[in-house]
């Protein structure tokens, strides 16, 4: 039915456009009065009125699913024709068609930019409302400070600490892999690499950044995890087959391109005069980088790392596939831990009952995750902004 | 004042130079590690996934028994029994019950399905003997590929020589939809689901994103409201994708009552997900068009909108397209939010429209990676190769566009 509605709207819109252009051209040919707008604008105005009216009617009648299926297309056809006819009637030389059409376009542009705000509001509303229902059933302090996470157990446990610790553990591993690699890569790219090296390395980093996380998850679970377990057992350690280390390592490699491209931009933004000053004092290149460039770029680098943290905390597929489901309270990187995102994903896959705390707890976790990443991003962006202003 | 003699000066300098060299090596090392990781990853996936593109066939002559199928209803025939009978005939020395069972598991159910398709297409085959390219089961296929050892190695070897088993490209892997049998499972259903989802996401996200970018870059007054929108878009770009899944579940499924597992919801969620990416890319593309072009248009009497839609936007279009294609690549690879809205079910039918239950390529990869059969592990890697090929081609198009149309002002 949606397809039919859209087809009718498009057909009416084109028809109205052609008729309106023809009518306006005829008016101009009659030559009694000069047209205020070009004929094409008369066409666009009439067509856009049909389009907007048709879409509104289609939206309303599709969301009221009463009556037979042909109601929506029929309503669209009737209203669209009526609006089109009305718009055609109104075409006179004095009509300021361009003005009116541009007002409509501006309104559409403004509405489009509001969609992003609405998305945030929608996300906020959906996690907050379900979380409120959840916290009516489960004590909020029991959630925040409990140490037992077993939403499907009897009695169910909704202590969030094991997940927090697991998330922090995996994020720490990822960041301690990604920061040195990403930062050193960025320094090398920005300060040492020749054009040729850059041309080879840039695509490598871009390809790595473009690899879907489900692929990295598969790699972590089937290649890296067994590798770590075998080498760990060879030196006499007990390693879980779903160790935090495997997930963290691969996640770290995922973040390297993010850190390196952000840091690359930041290092390039440090004014050349600072470097030249340092060279003039007799410093070597690495001394200049370590004592002048990096301190100047530090706020930007810190914010890059914060963005990387927020990315690691929110990453889902790698941990779903490579980390565990059982929420153990452990800081041993060789043990299996679970994370916030793993629990959200596993709680909401399959049957969902929106009255049971098991399903609702996923939204409470989502709320925590949303706020955590929001705060990190906000601070990081603020730092970047302030830093940019300093050198502009 | 420290007085430096010639010798201490030299050793001091040597120390500084060696520290310089060390630092440079660290940087190069970081790049080498990252590159090696990427190559190891790709090599590992390709070597695991390559066998998924091939399958083994046995040349088997099957009698289409008129007693087991009627010409009126060729679809309802007992083709599995015919294939079994043909196998018994070729291997008369297998008489034990247990051994017969093993013999029957050498071929795939797909062999009987192929026979059925042949007979349905041409009912005159009934009563004749058909030369069938019989598909082997996943276990025998893995054995012939040398990936597993088998308890029935002797039998499988004799099947190989007697029935002239050969390897061929597995077109089934591309043309079939999902199946419980690894040798029959294919990617077509997931691929169609991906196309539906991503095209809807692009159809919504691109116009919205470009319109929002034009407004923010060219029309928006500098005030608090505009600032709020900007901060909001930057934050939205960094919200974890799984949160968008929660939005889809709570809003699109529960409040608006859209169907579960359907590409329409997946497309909506992914459209919102890539919207900030497209807005940011489009704004960057609009920003580099020099203001003189707009001013020239205004100077000869164009309205503000005419200046932008007739002159600035066309010049910014290549940049917008590049950003959009990169957003498209992200949309193709996105998995987590689609798990929330139920696009994670086992779906054996190819979706016909936006409201049919469907899954997408990355989710198919996730589903297969979870299955215990060894054959699915190679199928998973094979599916990854397909997905990555699609993404690389998209990226290549983006890079081509950038090179072809990039203008320095």
Question: How are the SSEs ordered, and which strands pair?
Answer:
The complex is a heterodimer of chains A (392) and B (409).
Chain A: H1 2-30, H2 39-63, H3 71-89, H4 97-137, H5 140-145, E1 149-150, E2 157-158, H6 161-192, H7 195-210, H8 213-234, H9 244-269, H10 272-280, H11 285-314, H12 317-322, H13 340-348, H14 357-391
Antiparallel strand pairs in A: 1-2
Chain B: H1 6-49, E1 54-63, H2 79-90, H3 97-104, H4 109-121, E2 129-135, H5 138-144, H6 153-162, E3 166-169, H7 172-175, H8 188-219, H9 224-238, H10 241-255, H11 263-287, H12 291-299, H13 304-333, H14 336-340, H15 361-369, H16 374-405
Antiparallel strand pairs in B: 1-2, 1-3
Helix pairs in contact in B: 1-16, 2-4, 8-11, 8-13, 8-15, 9-11, 10-11, 11-13, 12-13, 13-16, 15-16
Report on the structure:
- In chain A, a hairpin with a 6-residue loop joins strand 1 (149-150) and strand 2.
- In chain A, 78% of the residues lie in helices and 1% in strands.
- Chain A has helices at residues 2-30, 39-63, 71-89, 97-137, 140-145, 161-192, 195-210, 213-234, 244-269, 272-280, 285-314, 317-322, 340-348, 357-391, and strands at residues 149-150, 157-158.
- In chain A, 46% of the residues are buried.
- Chain A is flat.
- Chain A has a two-stranded antiparallel sheet with strand order 1-2.
- Chain A is an all-alpha fold.
- Chain A has 14 helices and 2 strands, in the order H-H-H-H-H-E-E-H-H-H-H-H-H-H-H-H.
- A 3-stranded antiparallel β-sheet of chain B has the order 2-1-3.
- Chain B has helices at residues 6-49, 79-90, 97-104, 109-121, 138-144, 153-162, 172-175, 188-219, 224-238, 241-255, 263-287, 291-299, 304-333, 336-340, 361-369, 374-405, and strands at 54-63, 129-135, 166-169.
- The relative contact order of chain B is 0.11.
- The chains are: A mainly alpha (392), B mainly alpha (409).
- Chains A and B meet through helix 4, helix 6, helix 7, helix 8 and helix 11 of A and helix 1, helix 8, helix 9, helix 10 and helix 11 of B.
């Amino acid at each position: 039915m949606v397809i039919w509605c859209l087809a009718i709207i498009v057909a009416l819109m084109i028809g109205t456009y052609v008729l309106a252009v023809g009518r306006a051209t005829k008016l101009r040919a009659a030559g009694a009065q000069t047209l205020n707008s070009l004929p094409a604008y008369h066409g666009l105005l009439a067509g856009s009125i049909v389009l907007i009216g048709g879409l509104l009617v289609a939206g309303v009648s599709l969301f009221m699913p009463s009556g037979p299926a042909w109601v929506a297309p029929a309503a669209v056809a009737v209203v669209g024709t009526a609006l089109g006819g009305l718009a055609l009637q109104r075409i006179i030389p004095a009509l300021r068609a361009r003005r009116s059409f541009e007002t409509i376009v501006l309104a559409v542009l403004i509405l489009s930019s509001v969609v992003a705000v609405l998305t945030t509001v929608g996300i906020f509303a959906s996690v907050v409302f379900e979380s409120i229902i959840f916290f009516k059933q489960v004590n909020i302090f029991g959630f925040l400070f409990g140490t037992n996470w077993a939403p499907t157990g009897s009695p169910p446990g909704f202590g969030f600490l094991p997940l927090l610790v697991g998330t922090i553990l995996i994020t720490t591993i990822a960041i301690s892999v990604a920061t040195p690699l990403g930062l050193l890569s960025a320094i090398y790219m920005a300060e040492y690499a020749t054009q040729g090296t850059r041309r080879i390395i840039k695509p490598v980093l871009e390809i790595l950044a473009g690899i879907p996380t489900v692929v990295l998850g598969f790699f972590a679970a089937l290649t890296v995890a067994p590798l770590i377990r075998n080498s760990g057992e060879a030196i006499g350690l007990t390693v879980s087959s779903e160790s935090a280390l495997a997930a963290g390592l691969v996640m770290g490699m995922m973040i390297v391109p993010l850190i390196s491209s952000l840091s690359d931009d930041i290092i390039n933004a440090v004014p050349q005069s600072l470097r030249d000053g340092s060279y003039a004092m007799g410093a070597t290149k690495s001394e200049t980088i370590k004592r002048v460039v990096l301190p100047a770029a530090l706020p930007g680098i810190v914010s890059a790392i914060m963005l990387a943290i927020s990315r690691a905390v929110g990453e889902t597929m790698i941990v779903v596939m490579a980390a565990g489901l059982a929420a153990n309270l452990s800081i041993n990187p060789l043990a299996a831990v679970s994370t916030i995102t793993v629990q959200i994903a596993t709680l909401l896959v399959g049957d969902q009952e929106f009255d049971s705390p098991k399903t609702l707890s996923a939204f409470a976790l989502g709320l925590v995750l949303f706020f955590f990443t929001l705060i990190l991003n906000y601070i990081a962006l603020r730092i970047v902004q302030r830093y940019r202003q300093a050198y502009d | 004042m420290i007085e430096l003699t010639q010798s201490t000066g030299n050793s001091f300098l040597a120390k500084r130079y060696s520290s310089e060299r060390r630092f440079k090596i660290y940087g190069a090392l970081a790049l080498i590690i990252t590159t090696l990781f990427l190559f190891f990853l790709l090599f590992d996936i390709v070597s695991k996934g390559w066998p998924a593109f091939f399958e083994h066939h046995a040349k088997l002559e099957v009698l289409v028994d008129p007693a087991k199928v009627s010409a009126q209803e060729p679809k309802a025939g007992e083709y599995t029994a015919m294939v079994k009978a043909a196998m018994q005939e070729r291997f008369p020395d297998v008489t034990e019950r247990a051994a017969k069972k093993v013999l029957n598991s050498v071929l795939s159910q797909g062999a009987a399905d192929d026979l059925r398709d042949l007979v349905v297409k041409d009912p005159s085959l009934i009563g004749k003997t058909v030369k069938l390219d019989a598909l082997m089961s996943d276990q025998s296929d893995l054995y012939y590929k040398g990936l597993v050892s088998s308890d029935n190695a002797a039998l499988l070897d004799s099947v190989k020589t007697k029935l002239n088993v050969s390897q061929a490209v597995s077109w089934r892997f591309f043309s079939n939809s999902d199946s419980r049998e690894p040798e029959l499972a294919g990617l077509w259903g997931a691929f169609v689901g991906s196309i539906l989802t991503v095209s809807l996401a692009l159809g919504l996200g691109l116009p919205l994103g470009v319109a929002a970018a034009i407004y923010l870059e060219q029309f928006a007054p500098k005030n608090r409201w505009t600032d709020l929108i900007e901060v909001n878009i930057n934050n939205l770009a960094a919200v974890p994708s799984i949160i968008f899944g929660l939005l889809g579940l709570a809003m699109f499924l529960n409040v608006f009552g859209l169907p579960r597992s359907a590409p329409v919801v997946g497309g909506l969620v992914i459209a919102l997900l890539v919207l900030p990416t497209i807005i940011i890319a489009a704004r960057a593309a609009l920003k580099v068009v020099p203001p003189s072009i707009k001013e020239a248009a205004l100077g000869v009497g164009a309205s503000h909108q005419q200046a932008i839609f007739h002159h600035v936007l066309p010049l910014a279009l290549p940049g917008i397209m590049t950003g959009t294609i990169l957003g498209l690549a992200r949309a193709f690879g996105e998995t987590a939010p689609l798990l929330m809205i139920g696009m994670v079910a086992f779906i054996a039918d190819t979706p016909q429209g936006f409201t049919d239950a469907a899954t997408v390529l990355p989710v198919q990869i996730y589903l297969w990676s979870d299955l215990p059969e060894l054959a699915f592990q190679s199928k998973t890697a094979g599916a990854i190769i397909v997905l990555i090929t699609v993404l690389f081609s998209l990226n290549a198009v983006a890079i081509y566009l950038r090179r072809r149309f990039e203008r320095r002002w």
